[in-house]
Amino acid sequence: MGAVWRFILKNGKRVAVTIVGFGLVLAGLAMLVLPGPGIVVIIAGLAILATEYVWAERALNYAKDKAKQATDKARNRVSRKRR
User: Fold this and answer.
1) Which residues of the chain have pLDDT under 50?
2) pTM, to two decimals
């Protein structure tokens, strides 16, 4: 048990980031079927995880790209309707 505590104390920030990040991602996934801002919470969880993990940074960049594409598509539809 002493080795576990030494690991936690030595890597405390990484452990905390992992717990909080995955907690937010799981809460966001639950909010996809329950009331709440699921997508926003998932992105917040990925942003926290991206401070420690490269895979989370890639996933966050992918989500940002998809959000930008959706925003551009919505703006194009609105501008077409105004014409």
Assistant:
1) none
2) 0.74
